[in-house]
Amino acid sequence: MKKYQDHYFKQAKKDNYPARSVYKLQEINKRFGILRPGQKVLDLGAAPGSWTLFAAKVVGQGGKVLGVDLQSTATDFPANVRFLVGDVFEPPVEVQAALEELAPFDVVVSDMAPKTSGIIFRDQAFSFDLCVRALEVADKHLAKGGNFVAKIFEGPDVKQFAAMLRERFNTVKNFKPQSSRSESKETFYIGLGFKGAPEAPAQDQIPV
After folding, report:
1. Which of 46, 164, 178, 197 has the most Cβ atoms closer than 10 angstroms to its Cβ?
2. Half-sphere CA count of 170, side-chain side, radius 13 A
3. pLDDT tens-digit map of 90-143
4. Out of 24, 40, 64, 151, which one is annotated catalytic?
5. Is 149 contained in some domain?
6. 36 with 103: CB under 8 angstroms?
7. CATH number of the domain bearing residue 117
C-alpha cells in the first residue's frame, strides 16, 4: 500500500504538481469529461494548486480558472489562472469582484475538506456542510448546462447531498478515484448538466 501511495506522490513531483490530488481530478475528467478547452472554471479550496493547474492545462489559453482558498500558495500559475486568498462563502471585495467578472462559470470544483478531528461522525458532518456551501456557490455562479464536482466524506449525510444534486443536475454520479487512498473515507460527487437552483418554497403568508 505504501508503494502504491508513493507512486502518485512521486508522479506529482515529476509532473510539477504540488500535490498528488491532481490525479483524482484527472481521473474524474477522463471518466466524465467535465473539463473542455475554452471553459471558465471556479476551483474552491484551491491551495496548493494542483487542481487549478490541471484545469488550466485542459481549458487552455482560451479559458480561465479562478482559484480561491483561505490559504496562500507558492505555486506558480500560468496566465489563464487567477488565484485569490479569501473566504468564498463570505467573499472579500477582491474575490467578489472576480466572481462577478468571470461568472457564469462552466465548471465549479471543490476539493475542500474540514480539519479532521478523528471523530468520524463530526468530520463527516463538517464535510457535508462544506459540500452544501460549495453547492450554494454553484447555485449563484454556475452556468446552465455546467458541471460540478465536490469531495465528501462518506457517511449518513451523503444520500441527502446526492438528492440535492439530483434536484439541480441532469446526471449525478458518485466516483472514488484509484488515486484516492484505499483507507480514505472520501468520495466524489459529480453533477453534469446544471438545470439551475431549485425554487425556494413559497412561505405561507400570515394574515395581518
Report:
1. 46
2. 8
3. 999 999 999 999 999 999 999 999 887 888 889 999 999 999 999 999 999 999
4. 151
5. yes
6. no
7. 3.40.50.150
Q: Is residue 26 part of a domain?
A: yes
Quick: pLDDT tens for 49-101. 999 999 999 999 999 999 999 999 999 999 999 999 999 999 999 999 999 99
Known catalytic membership, residue 115: no
Phi, psi of 174 (to 5 degrees): -115, 135
pTM equals 0.90
The verdict on residue 142 lying in a domain is: yes
Q: Which residues are annotated as a binding site for S-adenosyl-L-methionine?
A: 49, 51, 69, 87, 111
Q: Is 107 in a helix, a strand, or coil?
A: strand
Nearest to 81 by CA among 47, 119, 55, 48: 55
> Among the residues of 17-154, which ranges form H helices?
22-32, 50-59, 93-102, 120-141
**How far is Cα 168 from Cα 147, in angstroms, rounded to an integer?**
10
What are the φ and ψ backbone dihedral angles of 53, each rounded to 5 degrees? -65, -45
Which residue has 502504491 as its cell numbers? 4
C-alpha distances (whole Å) from 71 to each of 8, 24, 46, 88, 117 are 23, 21, 9, 12, 19
Q: Are strands 186-194 and 142-153 parallel, antiparallel or unpaired?
A: antiparallel
